[in-house]
Amino acid sequence: MHPFLICATCSEPSAIMCAASPILSLQHVHYHWQGRASFALDIPEFAVDPSESVLLLGESGSGKSTLLSLICGTITARSGSVVVAGTDIVSLSAGKRDRFRAEQIGLIFQQFNLLPYASVLDNILLPLRFAPLRRARVPSPRDTARMLCLNLGLPEDAITAQAGTLSVGQQQRVAAARALIGAPPLIIADEPTSALDAATQTTFLDLLFAQTRACGSTLLMVSHDARLAEHFDRVVQLSDVTLPQQTAA
Amino acid sequence: MMLRLCLGSLMARALTVAMTIVAIALSVALFLGVEKVRTGAKASFADTISGTDLIVGARSGSVQLLLYSVFRIGNATNNLTWASYQDIAARPEVDWIVPISLGDSHRQFRVMGTSTAFFERYKYRAGQSLAVEKGAIMDDLFDTVIGADVAATLSYAVGDPIVVAHGLASFVEHEDQPFRVSGILEKTGTPVDRTVIVSLEAIEAIHVDWQSGAKIPGQSTPADVIRQMELEPIAVTAALVGVKSRLQVFGLQRAINEYPQEPLLAILPGVALQELWQIVGIAETALIAVSAMVVVTALIGMMATIFSSLNERRREMAIFRAMGARPRVILSLLVLEAALMAALGAVIGLALLYAGLFVAQPLVDATFGLWLPIEPPSLREFWVLLGVVAAGAIVSLVPAFRAYRMSLADGMMVRI
Ligand SMILES: Nc1ncnc2c1ncn2[C@@H]1O[C@H](COP(=O)(O)OP(=O)(O)OP(=O)(O)O)[C@@H](O)[C@H]1O
Ligand SMILES: [Mg+2]
After folding, report:
1. In terms of residue numbers, what domain contains A133?
2. Total domain count for chain A?
3. 3-state DSSP assignment of residue A229
4. What pTM was estimated for this model as a whole?
5. pLDDT tens-digit profile of A160-217?
6. Which residues of B touch A106 (CB under 8 A)?
7. S-S: A98 plus which of A189, A239, B326, B402, CB 3.0-4.6 Å?
8. Of residues B158, B227, B171, B172, the one with CA closest to residue B199
9. In this structure, are residues A143 and A178 in contact, taking their beta carbons and an 8 Å threshold?
């Protein structure tokens, strides 16, 4: 088995309160961008169970990133409810939603995840700065960050390096470490591997899975690449959970 | 950590940031420099005369009287007759009186006729007395005592002969009566440094062969004949007066101003200085305003660079937002950044000021007779620096608010 299958971020096996209720649940969500009639997102029902790993597949422009923004609360659904870890974020104030995101969600993007001028360590510790509860779960942030880097296969000296000097693959691993630190219940990744070559993709995903599982977090990843499906517990087509769009004439 | 990130972000844009800081530093140095010169000039003006209770001259403006009698700036329109002078000298309130007779020059320096009492009574910089550096106070009719700048500029030594010209910047010289340098005064930082001092009688002696400002043709009285003559002046330019009791100053001033035989004016040097400040106050304010505008311009330059950096930093802001930073954090990061730049600019500006002072102090002293003291920053300068930082922060609110709105709209998604 993998040598580092213990949670690096916390001693407890998991930070999730109740295993029965879904970690993420969307109901009757409707969203459209201001002044863009051609695109609308309608999701009657979509749920992710705790500790599950879900791959959400969808074509480019189908609204995957928009959906993730809705879940993260940087945009709010026009109607419906978005419940993350038991809290309906649609009803939260903007400030509370920002705080909530910091506490509950670890994020990995496709590219340019890091502040290039800051050290790898500072990049990894950044979310803790905005999430006091998550920070409290990490007794020694520096050591934890170092451990995560090690577990994600980053070189020993990478932690002090400037983030901008790392290779793209290494940067993605740092982004993963940043998402994982403090073991947020939900890890969200927006095509984190599309900038990597096939071999690196697989290594990256293996490491990400191992660490997510070790932390007991749930992983929701979106992609347009169906080849990644084999790694996941469940694969969902975005078109299956959304209502067909009525395209304006 | 936020401070470290902010510094890192600034370092990443080192060149533009450095240029912005240099602009702020230069403007701050200019502003503080102008302040230094202004206060230095004021202090050196105020230090020029002390211990004198009243200055008496013919009736004119009090500022004018102060300027020509003490600072050798401008000319007297009228004189004070010797009879009036003696009348004043005889008054019971008067402790001492020193006559001043101006109107002649030596090269570019003014010649002042006075009594030897001048050397005891004239005080500068909080009661300091004049001191002879070389030689002695004049003894003979044709002896002169010269100021430090006169000696330095014309490289005179004790014993050198000099010739006095009638009037100012005149080519008609009183060749017949060559004077001799008997003493050189220590440097004072006052107009005395640029003055050739002779006795009151000597001024009369020069003018024995002159009438109404022109030389009587063919007449040339030998020096030894002049020595025999009764050299009593008809008039002097002004007089410095000390009273026995300070309570009598105003009484004496009124008495002189109401002197029936001749229109006279007595002024208190301190009051006249205040009037002078009021006159130069407008120019002063303009000077401050201009240098403050330079600081403002530098800060606006900083604002422009922050503005232009916003677009390329959308990614950075999106990352902060994704990590759970509120848009408010983005705003405060930008303000912090601006405050850091302004603070660094202010500190470097202060350093530049001191460097400049070290270099310029002897030069300014030699050229303008202005001593700019090198002291630790005053409370006022401290406030100025703080003001620059605060102004920088306030100015940066404009781009910071834009970033705030941008990051609200962008959320964590940015298309580049
Ligand atoms: N900030 C925005 N303002 C207006 N419209 C937007 C904005 N962001 C996305 N859209 C629109 O929403 C639609 C869905 O975009 P989205 O980024 O969610 O797609 P995606 O599935 O993530 O695509 P990709 O696979 O290329 O990343 C598009 O039509 C896009 O033009
Ligand atoms: Mg996308």
Report:
1. 24-241
2. 1
3. helix
4. 0.75
5. 999 889 888 889 889 999 999 988 999 999 888 887 888 888 888 888 888 888 888 8
6. none
7. B326
8. B227
9. no
